[in-house]
What we know:
This protein is of the alpha+beta class. It has two domains: 107 residues, no CATH class; 107 residues, Aminopeptidase, CATH 3.40.630.30. Helices cover 31% and strands 28% of the residues. The strands form two sheets. The chain has a seven-stranded mixed β-sheet, with helices on both faces. Strands 1-2-3 form a three-stranded antiparallel β-sheet, with helices on one face. Helix 4 crosses helix 5.
Amino acid sequence: xxxxxxxxxxxxxxxxxxxxxxxxxxxxxxxxxxxxxxxxxxxxxxxxxxxxxxxxxxxxxxxxxxxxxxxxxxxxxxxxxxxxxxxxxxxxxxxxxxxxxxxxxxxxxxxxxxxxxxxxxxxxxxxxxxxxxxxxxxxxxxxxxxxxxxxxxxxxxxxxxxxxxxxxxxxxxxxxxxxxxxxxxxxxxxxxxxxxxxxxxxxxxxxxxxxxxxxxxxxxxxxxxxxxxxxxxxxxxxxxxxxxxxxxxxxxxxxxxxxxxxx
Length: 263
């Protein structure tokens, strides 16, 4: 039986396509290839799922599924990676059926949200200005996320490759070190909020509100009219925070992988 990710009105698909496009520019893969409307995103230096996945961009592009799917698997294998499918409202339902029939499992549901920056209330002044020091920002992100420092070159390369104007926001103290980070990418009238992180010792101190507010203010001053972000569907605390800024759900996406692939 053919099943879609969710019921999205056809009139909303252009918005989904636009948000997907700005998302690709905000988090660029080092290798992007196309098979029809299927985008194969690969990055040898950093293992982010968004950088290493198959992303179909047209629900009607479902010809020769088996052949194209196996070709994609071979391409990912050449990078030493197992194929991961990113399912959005633009994914052909027949492709979802194919991976389900092969025993693949769905994981990591994500909600894409937007807010009107012109309508929201933000401070008139910015308490935190963006940094241009990629190394400092990456060190702060890795410290807060608890990631291995071995991925620093790959993450720094991804951030340095972002073409639209980018604000790297860091809150830190001499005693505690990094407290909160976020990355804001301003792409014409759209601004994306990425990689929000807060130190565990600073939770419930409104640090996330503080740094997101600064990033949104920066984007609005630069001319952005709408902000977007992606947050884990199960991250209820973060979703509640973003709702205070007026963020509302537009669509969701999921990942699919073979059962043999490690998490």
